[in-house]
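STRUCTURE:
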């Protein structure tokens, strides 16, 4: 585990990234090797992915598939793997009550995370989104926990309507506005795809905006997102699914066609070893 001073320095660097004039890309590794590769490619920060972690453990991507303890142990491993600040994908905060969210914030800080996201999805199929009042209370409790820390910690509040079957943009906007008023530092509505709506959210909300990038239908480059006002790009489970997709494709080729055409594009050991830690 890095030293407390190192963790505090990374946390301040993470906060500073959000205050600068330029968009930054924060990819999501799912294990130590992917973290080291992404750090070696020059990205300024990393983020965990709950889905990527679940898949690496052979579990489905469901709310609650990963326990708080498992998520914090995983976060600490990713933090220790590189010198970069790391943001935690902490789902709904591993509990419905505001007190549970506050406890998760304190655990996230202890694991060395520079920040985290808390979402308003319940994880229940019959009632997918928390009532707005409770959702705001949960963010307020997280903010209070952050303010009790002895170092910076960037809290991102997520409104999940668009990926939970509710296309109500106005409710999504109003939730984010309420989260900002409660003290969230960064706002995030995964599922936004068109640039005019993205630009409106960035322009009319008071906090830096995180865009989930790489979705089908997002037919624009990152530079266009920057021009729309996006401050931070994350990829969610996109890179993990890309990696598992390559494995699925190669495995199907072997089992169904009896060939190994995938080997033509596989990177050599030297290409990967350069990113990894020397253990001998």
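SEQUENCE:
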């Amino acid at each position: 585990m890095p030293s407390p001073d190192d963790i505090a320095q990374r946390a301040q660097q993470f906060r500073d990234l959000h205050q600068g004039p330029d968009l930054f890309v924060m990819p999501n590794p799912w294990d130590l090797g992917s973290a080291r590769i992404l750090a070696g490619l020059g990205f300024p920060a990393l983020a965990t992915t709950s889905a990527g972690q679940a898949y690496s453990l052979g579990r489905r991507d469901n709310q609650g598939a990963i326990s708080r303890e498992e998520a914090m142990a995983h976060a600490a491993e990713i933090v220790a793997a590189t010198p970069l600040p790391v943001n935690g994908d902490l789902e709904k905060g591993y509990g419905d009550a505001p007190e549970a969210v506050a406890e998760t914030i304190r655990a996230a800080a202890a694991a060395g995370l520079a920040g985290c996201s808390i979402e308003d999805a319940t994880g229940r199929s019959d009632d997918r989104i928390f009532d707005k009042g409770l959702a705001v209370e949960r963010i307020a409790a997280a903010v209070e926990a952050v303010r009790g820390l002895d170092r910076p910690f960037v809290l991102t509040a997520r409104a999940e309507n668009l990926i939970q079957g509710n296309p109500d943009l106005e409710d999504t906007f109003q939730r984010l506005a309420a989260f900002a008023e409660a003290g969230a530092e960064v706002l995030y509505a995964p599922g936004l795809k068109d640039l005019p709506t993205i630009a409106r959210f960035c322009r009319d909300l008071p906090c830096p905006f995180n865009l989930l990038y790489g979705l089908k239908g997002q037919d624009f480059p990152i530079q266009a997102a920057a021009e729309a006002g996006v401050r931070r790009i994350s990829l969610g489970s996109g890179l993990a699914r890309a990696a598992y997709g390559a494995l699925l494709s190669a495995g199907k080729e072997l089992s169904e066609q009896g060939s190994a055409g995938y080997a033509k594009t596989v990177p050599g050991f030297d290409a990967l070893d350069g990113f990894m830690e020397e253990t001998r």
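REMARK: The radius of gyration is 19 Å.
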